[in-house]
Amino acid sequence: MSEKRDNSGSSFPNDRRREGKNDPNITGSVMIDGEEYWMDTWVKNHPKQPNHDPSKKTWYSHSFRKKDSQRQARQPQQRRQSAPPPPPPSDNDGGLHPDEQTWQ
Q1: Contacts of 15 (CB under 8 A, 6+ apart)
Q2: Measured over all CA atoms, what is the biggest interatomic distance in the chain, rounded to whole angstroms?
Q3: pTM flag (> 0.85)
Q4: Which position among 35, 61, 83, 90 has the lowest Cβ density within 10 Å, counted as fewest Cβ atoms?
Q5: Which residues sit opposite 30 in a β-bridge?
Q6: What is the pLDDT of residue 73?
Q7: Domain spans of the chain?
């Protein structure tokens, strides 16, 4: 395998594309300023797409992720809001007594 050169990369058709999903048409990797990235590319307004507009040109949309992140099908991120931590017990609030391991 050849050594990667800075500010270059390669890409290939995505053979793992799932029907009805927003998976990229093309995937690959690039090196930019010494850092390696995954590259995903979506082909827009392609003649084989159902919503093709012949009056417009085909164009490409790209996305880059650092290679230290997992390369898997992206799972929808659940946004959980954690409750704020409880305030530390004061001397008079019935909190944990310094000499005991149970709440009073």
Answers
A1: none
A2: 79
A3: no
A4: 83
A5: 9, 37
A6: 47
A7: 11-66
